[in-house]
Amino acid sequence: MLELLKEEPWLIVVTLALSIPILGIIFGTVTGHLTRVRKAEIEASLKMEMIQRGMSAEEIKMVIEAMPRKSCKHHGPAAEREWS
Questions:
Q1: Computed from CA positions of residues 11, 14, 17, 20, in that sequence, does the dihedral angle turn out positive or negative?
Q2: Which of 45, 39, 29, 41 is nearest to 70 (CA)?
Q3: Where are the alpha helices (DSSP H) in 1-84?
Q4: Residue span of the structural domain in which 37 resides
Q5: Number of compact structural domains in the chain
Q6: pLDDT tens-digit series, residues 5-31
Q7: Would you say residue 44 lies in a domain?
Q8: pLDDT tens readout for residues 68-80
Q9: What is the pTM of this model?
Q10: CA 66 to CA 84: how far, in whole Å?
Q11: What are the contacts of 62-69 at 24+ separation with CB within 8 A?
Q12: Is 68 inside any structural domain?
């Protein structure tokens, strides 16, 4: 293998050029899934806590619907109008 790299040093550049984006895609996909799983766990524990406190289904629905769905709410044209 080392002989091949000595004869063809451009293979190192090609290997890195292909492997870095692939590893980035894998990392992004895994962290995205882990984030979604963690958010679902937090929401489920919140629902369980509200049930244990004796809240009605209507109150729980109201709390869940009031939660922001995106991590940042300052995106899009509405946010630009709001800040101008």
A1: negative
A2: 39
A3: 2-7, 10-52, 57-66, 76-83
A4: 20-61
A5: 1
A6: 888 889 989 999 999 999 999 999 999
A7: yes
A8: 876 554 555 554 4
A9: 0.61
A10: 25
A11: 67/43
A12: no
